Amino acid sequence: MTNEPTGNYVVSATIESDSKLALPASIGNLDALFTQGSVGVSTVQRFVANVNPGSNTVTVFGIDNLNPARLNMIGQPVSSGGDFPSSLAINKAGNRVCVVNGGKINGVSCYTFDAVGGLSPLRATIRSLNLNQTTPVRPPSPTGPSNTPSQIIFSPDEKQLIVSVKAGFLAVWDINTDGSLSPDFQTVLGGILPFSLLYVPSKNAIIASDPGVGYDIFNLATNATVSFPIPAQTLTCWSVHSAESGNFYMVDVGVSTITEITVTGSLGSTIVKARADTLTLCRLSFMYSLAANATGLTVLSVNGPGEAQIIQRLDVAGPAKAANLSIHSSNMQGMATFIGKLRVLKVIVI
């Protein structure tokens, strides 16, 4: 997502047979977020959803059956239910999308999805975070980054909706059987600026990047949180988990460093190596990351613990300029992946 004030564009790229990226196209929609998850993909329903912070809307695009890099808008953009939407989550079935707003009117709202009409507001899901915030006249952001929401996710069993707030807590709503949310959220304290959220496999626990310290592990079973420093870190923000290596990877957007982290069964943790979406191709795992402080993408192979290696640095600025597309490193946001059936893999970058 280019996230430019002059126009927000979704840029799609193909993943070739050697796992490297190519940039064939971009598509405009209606519209620096301090967040992760500004774009999401449903492989079940074959759509891309993204937030438009400049217009307080959410947009969905259908993924073409023959060419997954071709996107077509479904329905019309819908109101985000607040100001400055910055992150979204899609459930496993692909029939529900939830969004977090980070401006003056902040909080969450949810929608149902159908392939013809797109998104429709879901009853009793607009819930406030009660943050004392501002709404900018234009992006990049509300007052922040502290005291702003970062990412919204579903719990693995989809019975809870969770938002990280860069004020030292997670906000957790219960999801009722009809899709509505509990009136108030539960607060799980911990960290300084909890940012991106990933569940630890087979554990009722979340690991969160934290630019205030390094990263945090929230034990939701005991409501205990432990913070871990990352040496020489400046702004550790984005993160991803690799099933191939079993480890977590966090990107420092200040110095363009990727830190590999392992979490033990007792929720202890150590840094494996300091060197972000992963896909598996031919039994190898690959990581695709926005390059920090640059208008480009980085591709890494992840063959096992401590073995991440850069195999490509893809320039986005050159092709964007050739297409008369305005793009700046401070505004580029979001990344999500789609696995096509006719072509081996596709990646959608926004």
Describe the overall structure:
Helices cover 2% and strands 47% of the residues. It is globular and about 45 Å long. The chain has one helix and 30 strands. The protein has one domain (9-349): Methylamine Dehydrogenase, Chain H. It is an all-beta fold. A hairpin with a 6-residue loop joins strand 29 and strand 30. InterPro entries: Quino_amine_DH_bsu, WD40/YVTN_repeat-like_dom_sf.
What is the total domain count?
A: 1
Structural class: mainly beta
- Distance, first to last CA: 3 Å
**The CATH superfamily title:** YVTN repeat-like/Quinoprotein amine dehydrogenase
Region (Disordered): 131-151
InterPro entries: Quino_amine_DH_bsu (IPR011044), WD40/YVTN_repeat-like_dom_sf (IPR015943)
Features:
350 residues, WD40/YVTN_repeat-like_dom_sf, 47% strand, disordered C terminus, Quino_amine_DH_bsu, Methylamine Dehydrogenase, Chain H, single chain, 30 strands
In short:
The chain is mainly β and 350 residues long. The protein has one helix at 317-322; strands at 9-15, 21-28, 39-42, 47-52, 57-63, 71-73, 78-79, 85-90, 96-101, 107-114, 118-121, 127-128, 149-154, 160-165, 169-174, 186-189, 197-199, 205-210, 214-219, 224-229, 236-241, 248-252, 257-263, 269-274, 277-281, 284-290, 296-302, 308-315, 335-338, 345-349.
Secondary-structure map:
Layout: E1 9-15, E2 21-28, E3 39-42, E4 47-52, E5 57-63, E6 71-73, E7 78-79, E8 85-90, E9 96-101, E10 107-114, E11 118-121, E12 127-128, E13 149-154, E14 160-165, E15 169-174, E16 186-189, E17 197-199, E18 205-210, E19 214-219, E20 224-229, E21 236-241, E22 248-252, E23 257-263, E24 269-274, E25 277-281, E26 284-290, E27 296-302, E28 308-315, H1 317-322, E29 335-338, E30 345-349
Antiparallel strand pairs: 1-2, 1-30, 3-4, 4-5, 5-6, 5-7, 8-9, 9-10, 10-11, 10-12, 13-14, 14-15, 15-16, 17-18, 18-19, 19-20, 21-22, 22-23, 23-24, 25-26, 26-27, 27-28, 29-30
